[in-house]
From TrEMBL, chains A, B:
<dbReference type="GO" id="GO:0050661">
    <property type="term" value="F:NADP binding"/>
</dbReference>
<dbReference type="InterPro" id="IPR002912">
    <property type="entry name" value="ACT_dom"/>
</dbReference>
<keyword id="KW-0791">Threonine biosynthesis</keyword>
<feature type="binding site">
    <location>
        <begin position="24"/>
        <end position="31"/>
    </location>
    <ligand>
        <name>NADP(+)</name>
    </ligand>
</feature>
<dbReference type="GO" id="GO:0009088">
    <property type="term" value="P:threonine biosynthetic process"/>
</dbReference>
<feature type="active site" description="Proton donor">
    <location>
        <position position="221"/>
    </location>
</feature>
<dbReference type="InterPro" id="IPR001342">
    <property type="entry name" value="HDH_cat"/>
</dbReference>
<dbReference type="InterPro" id="IPR036291">
    <property type="entry name" value="NAD(P)-bd_dom_sf"/>
</dbReference>
<keyword id="KW-0521">NADP</keyword>
<feature type="binding site">
    <location>
        <position position="206"/>
    </location>
    <ligand>
        <name>L-homoserine</name>
    </ligand>
</feature>
<dbReference type="Pfam" id="PF03447">
    <property type="entry name" value="NAD_binding_3"/>
</dbReference>
<keyword id="KW-0560">Oxidoreductase</keyword>
<protein>
    <recommendedName>
        <fullName>Homoserine dehydrogenase</fullName>
        <ecNumber>1.1.1.3</ecNumber>
    </recommendedName>
</protein>
<comment type="similarity">
    <text>Belongs to the homoserine dehydrogenase family.</text>
</comment>
<dbReference type="GO" id="GO:0009086">
    <property type="term" value="P:methionine biosynthetic process"/>
</dbReference>
<feature type="binding site">
    <location>
        <position position="121"/>
    </location>
    <ligand>
        <name>NADPH</name>
    </ligand>
</feature>
<comment type="pathway">
    <text>Amino-acid biosynthesis; L-threonine biosynthesis; L-threonine from L-aspartate: step 3/5.</text>
</comment>
Length: 444, 444
């Protein structure tokens, strides 16, 4: 081994030069990273053989007290200056946004030959393939553990710990806000809008919640996971995305009755039609371990041909968990670790083509609100039959001549396209009020 | 960054020399590793930048068909010869046993400057500190992901993914045989001996099961986890170890009734008296995610000061999961990754002193079999009171003049030493039949 002889003697000697970090963006996460590096400096140095030291920062308000001494640090008005700062070895991008300064900073750091650590899932979801290629051509590390599932070391697990596996499926609870809302709705029986308003008051949801509750954030993370798990270019645009706005307390009740729990999952897997990628609410059997991941926790499941099923759970957001992941990336860089950005060299990634959602196969839960009149169920059943959808159960608990009553149908495994045709026909039936609610049942 | 420029250009070029592996021991795991390296050769090379190639083997029966072509491989009668074989870059020790040939092979490989990968938890539990020191002095990697929790990348998670954290507690379901037996006992209502016999028939338990069911295997793994999590020398001897032989179907019933599930856990954590290390059956609240890890699955939980709670679950044994972990170690070596064997340089590990079990604080479940006569509960209560143990609940469901009936007591948090004195006094009461059964209640 060429590098064995000096492995510990040089890297872990006290003489090793510190790794100098430039931080762009000093919000919750950036402040958390600076504090962690200061408070745990000795422990981190013992573990990675070098001190990790913040030498430069670009952030909006210089004066703000962040509970950490930054008096000796160089400040830059323009974050992009960090790429050129000779006292910066590694650029930490915590500005956010899928374009603009964040992207320019990363591109310039790569050009300058400086390793980059980022927590920016939106940017990676949209530009990850190009950035990976640029980084590898320049021989520069681009690390992003914090971009997916916060503090859970899931990128490391997929890219290194499970690297001996051909992964067949990867899925997860990738958005803590949605999981918190769904957990709370189930426990309290309250409706979405009500729980969302509370979550916003408590800081678990943003003022503009659409990024989270419409599934976009989860889709960004899924795009990254899919690329790393299957060795493909990212294909964010190809992901079928549904959020949780249409989930009602009634559906959560029926789910429990049927032995399921409703979770927003991001799912990617090999199918006969290629890799499928989808983000939507799912009914999960109660005996699946991921059904018990509640509140703001995230979870990522991977199925490998050798290892079988592995599930990782932990906090997906927040200053502490995100800083934990960011600093782990810095420590890998301090140790000289490197692996292809997306698992295999970016030039050799397969094209990022996602299987059409119409070819998805699975079981379905459908809830209709119908005027209880003779022949309705027969019309519904005919719509399913004509589209080759096989019903598993029909549940009509209440009868009421004056108000629409819920009819809940579950189906056997069927193709999405046929299901959508059936639903369109059912939605047009005069007795059917409201849009039919459809939730996919996942056999985990 | 000194190594950035050649990062991908050299390591991931087709010209990179293969990493040549010598395997000692070709049983289930060794055969699995050889097969995995052959079948996934291209994928592994894409991921780690070099081919990994088995060039030498030492195993008992050369002729046996292992489903993989080993005709071009060099065979050694004596495993120790692998250390000296010039066509071996890395030695893979899969012989097992805490001393003898396995230990000598590893020592000789280290002396020869060759990285070692092993799945040998018994050897590491007893000699891990010395081997880590020897390896680091020689500048040689000693990797052992497969030694703890099989396919779950838990060593990587602790040593790298969560390396930014000061870990406060680590615990897990570390023995799949025990977890399978306890799960099956609970589901079927059958007794330990009966379920064990079945597990032996199905190959889930060894003919001599004591290593597993008496908690020794779990303790080996806990010793390693404790060292890595807390930066201390291994202290296997200091672990308090109890197995699952004394768990009865009755206790599993009472546990469910009280809202608990019984699991054999290995637990290590910071206390006022130092690091405690213990392996014993625990009552776990049903809302703890680890309570839902059933059958042969393992799980490891870590609590870090930044990341919070992280839980990893997966298969803890078997050819596939173990080979997955072994090959991941080989890929790290192929990539040139290295980290201190036990998380920080071995010369700087704290002494491996374990807090005395008598100082452990926790809540307890006690089941007595008593002749139902006036004054028994008063005598029991007095024994607790005199030892400053505060009872939380007393349950005496059945009354029978002719046969002993179960009395179940739970206590508030108390010190183990006082509890043991109370139990000794209670055991001596004339009305108390059988030894009192004690199971610790864990507040997870």
């Amino acid at each position: 081994m060429s590098n064995s002889n000096t492995l510990y003697s040089s890297a872990y000697s006290s003489a090793a030069a510190p790794l100098r970090i430039g931080i762009a963006g000093l919000g919750t996460v950036g402040g958390g990273v600076a504090k962690l590096l200061e408070q745990q400096g000795d422990l981190l140095a013992a573990r990675c053989g070098r001190r990790i030291q913040v030498t430069a920062i670009s952030a909006r308000s210089r004066g703000k007290d962040r509970g950490v001494d930054l008096s000796a640090v160089r400040w830059h008005e323009d974050a992009r200056a960090l790429a050129a700062d000779p006292e910066v070895d590694v650029v930490l991008e915590l500005i956010g946004g899928s374009d603009g300064v964040a992207k320019e900073l990363i591109e310039q750091a790569i050009k300058a030959g400086k390793p980059v650590v980022t927590a920016n899932k939106a940017l990676l979801a949209l530009h990850g393939t190009a950035l990976a290629k640029a980084a590898e051509q320049a021989g520069v590390i681009l690390a992003y553990e914090a971009a997916v599932a916060g503090g859970i070391p899931v990128i490391k697990a997929l890219r290194e710990g499970l690297a001996a596996n051909d992964v067949r499926r990867v899925y997860g609870i990738l958005n803590g806000t949605c999981n918190y809302i769904l957990s709370t709705m189930r426990e309290s029986g309250r409706e979405f809008a009500d729980v969302l308003a509370d979550a916003q008051k408590m800081g678990y949801a943003e003022a503009d919640p659409s990024f989270d509750v419409d599934g976009i954030d989860a889709a960004h993370k899924l795009a990254i996971l899919t690329s790393v798990a299957f060795g493909r270019e990212l294909d964010f645009q190809g992901i079928h995305v549904e959020g949780i706005r249409h989930i009602s307390a009634l559906d959560l009740q029926f789910a429990e009755q049927l032995g399921y729990r409703i979770k927003l999952l991001g799912i990617a897997g090999r199918t006969d039609h290629g890799i499928e990628q989808r983000v939507h609410p799912c009914m999960i059997p109660l005996d699946a371990p991921i059904a018990h991941v509640e509140g703001v926790f995230n979870a990522v499941f991977a199925e490998g041909d050798s290892v079988g099923n592995v599930l990782l759970t932990g906090r997906g957001a927040g200053a502490g968990p995100t800083a934990s992941a960011v600093v782990a990336d810095l420590m890998d860089i301090a140790r000289g670790h490197h692996a292809p950005v997306l698992g295999i060299p970016a030039e050799r990634l397969a094209p990022g083509e996602t299987a059409p959602m119409g070819r998805h196969r699975g079981a379905y839960y459908i809830r209709l609100m119908v005027h209880d009149q003779p022949g309705v169920i027969a019309d519904v059943a005919a719509a399913f039959r004509d589209n080759e959808v096989s019903m598993e159960s029909v549940l009509q608990q209440a009868r009421d001549a004056s108000e629409p009553v819920p009819v809940v149908i579950t189906t056997h495994e069927t193709e999405e396209a046929g299901m959508m045709r059936a639903i369109a026909r059912i939605a047009a039936l005069p007795a059917v009020q409201e849009s039919p609610r459809l939730i996919r049942i996942e056999a985990l």
